[in-house]
Design a protein that fits this description.
about 375 residues, 17 helices, globular
C-alpha cells in the first residue's frame, strides 16, 4: 500500500490500535502472573525461562508502548487542530485531556475508596504506608509515582496510576512549553533534552521504585512519540525511508525483547545497561514504527482483530483490569483449582479484563466524553 497523507479529521489506525493492544495485553498478563506467582499457582515455570520473561514479565515495556503511542497521537491531533505546535490553545488542550482522563479516573477512585473502607482483600491500603485521603490526593494531582517511591507499592488498581502521573504531568507542561518556546526547532530541542536526561535519571535514582516510576525517568518514551509525530509530515511521501525506519524500529524492539530480555547482554555490552539505555531502546523502536503505520492506515484484517479490540479500549482496560486479576485469583484459590488449570485461568482473566474495559468504554467513557465535549464546544 502506498503512503497517504492523513486527513484533517482524526481517525483510527488499525496498526496503532494493534500496538496499544499488545501493550495492554502485556500489562494484564504481567499483573495476572504476578498475583498467581504470589499464590504459587503460576504456570510460567512450565515455559522456557526466556519465553516466560517475554510473556509474563514485560509489563513495563507494555507501558512504554502506550507512552510512545500517546505522545505520537496527541502531538498529531494537536497539529491537526491548530496547524502547528507553536500556537496551542491552552483551554482546549486541557479540556480535551480532562474529559478523556478524569471521568473514569474519578469513578475508579470512588470504587477503590469504597473497597478500602469495606476492608476488601487486596484493596486495603496499609495504614503504615499512607492514609486513604493521601492516596486519593496523590491520584488526583498525579503523583502516585512519588508516593510509591516513598512508601512502597500500593495495592491493586492504586499502583497502576503511577503511569497516569508521568503522562499527565508531561501533558500539563507540553502546551506551556510550546507557547513559551514558540518555534518548532526549540520544541524539538526540549524534547531531545528529555530523551537525553531520562537514562541519566534512571541510573542516578534515589531508589529502585523511583528509577522505574519517576517523571524524568519515563518521559523519554513520550518524547519519542512526540518527535515521531513532528517528523511524520516530512516523511509521509518518502515510502522507502518510512519502510527503512519502520524496519529499524522493529529491529530495536526485537533487540530489547530478545537480546536484553531473553539472552541478557554479554559482559562487554553491560555499559549499555549502566548508562540506562536499555529502557530507551524499546520506545524508540515503537516511535520509528509509528509514522509508517499512520501512512499505511489500511485495515489489518481478522487475525489482528482481538489485539485491535484491546487497543481501542486500552485506557479502560488499564484502569480496571486489576479488579479482574484480584478477584479472579481469589476465586481460583477459593475453588481449590490446581496449577494445571492456570493456563485456562490466564486466558479467561485476559478475556474478562478486555470485556470489562470494553463495557466501561461503551457504556460510560465514550458517551460521557462525547457529551462533555459537546457541552464545552470542543468537538
Amino acid at each position: 500500500m502506498s503512503p497517504t497523507l492523513p486527513d484533517s479529521a482524526p481517525r483510527r489506525v488499525d496498526g496503532i490500535d494493534l500496538l496499544r493492544g499488545v501493550s495492554i495485553v502485556l500489562v494484564v498478563l504481567h499483573h495476572v502472573n504476578l498475583h498467581m506467582a504470589f499464590a504459587n499457582l503460576s504456570f510460567a515455570g512450565w515455559l522456557p525461562k526466556p519465553w516466560a520473561r517475554i510473556l509474563f514479565w514485560n509489563g513495563q515495556n507494555g507501558v512504554l508502548i502506550f507512552f510512545a503511542v500517546s505522545g505520537f497521537l496527541i502531538t498529531t491531533n494537536a497539529r491537526r487542530r491548530w496547524g502547528s505546535l507553536e500556537r496551542p490553545r491552552l483551554r482546549e488542550f486541557y479540556l480535551l485531556r480532562a474529559v478523556r482522563i478524569l471521568p473514569l479516573l474519578l469513578v475508579v477512585l470512588a470504587v477503590l475508596s469504597a473497597l478500602h473502607l469495606a476492608g476488601a482483600r487486596d484493596f486495603v491500603i496499609t495504614p503504615s504506608q499512607c492514609s486513604l485521603t493521601r492516596a486519593v490526593v496523590a491520584a488526583l494531582v498525579f503523583h502516585v509515582n512519588a508516593l510509591e517511591s516513598a512508601v512502597g507499592y500500593l495495592p491493586a488498581n492504586w499502583d497502576v496510576l503511577w503511569s497516569l502521573a508521568v503522562e499527565e504531568v508531561f501533558y500539563l507542561g507540553l502546551p506551556l512549553a510550546c507557547l513559551l518556546l514558540r518555534r518548532q526547532r526549540w520544541i524539538v530541542a526540549a524534547l531531545l533534552m528529555l530523551v537525553a536526561v531520562a537514562p541519566l535519571a534512571r541510573v542516578h535514582y534515589g531508589n529502585s521504585l523511583w528509577a522505574e516510576y519517576g517523571y524524568l525517568c519515563r518521559m523519554d518514551a513520550i518524547s519519542f512519540g512526540c518527535l515521531a509525530a513532528i517528523a511524520a509530515p516530512r516523511l509521509i511521501t518518502r515510502a522507502r525511508l518510512l519502510r527503512n525506519l519502520a524496519g529499524l524500529g522493529l529491529a530495536l524492539m526485537l533487540f530489547s525483547l530478545v537480546v536484553i530480555r531473553w539472552w541478557h547482554l554479554p559482559e562487554e555490552l553491560r555499559w549499555f545497561l549502566r548508562l540506562g539505555l536499555d529502557d530507551s531502546t524499546f520506545p524508540l523502536g515503537v516511535a520509528l514504527l509509528l509514522p509508517w503505520l499512520t501512512a499505511n492506515a489500511g485495515r489489518l484484517g481478522w487475525p489482528s482483530a482481538p489485539l485491535c479490540w484491546f487497543g481501542r479500549n486500552s485506557y479502560e482496560v488499564y484502569l480496571t483490569h486489576m479488579f479482574v486479576a484480584s478477584w479472579g485469583i481469589q476465586f481460583f484459590i477459593a475453588g481449590h483449582w490446581t496449577v494445571g488449570w492456570s493456563p485456562f485461568a490466564y486466558l479467561l482473566w485476559l478475556a474478562l479484563a478486555g470485556a470489562l474495559g470494553a463495557l466501561v468504554a461503551r457504556s460510560f467513557s465514550e458517551p460521557i466524553n462525547r457529551n462533555l465535549r459537546h457541552r464545552l464546544g470542543i468537538l
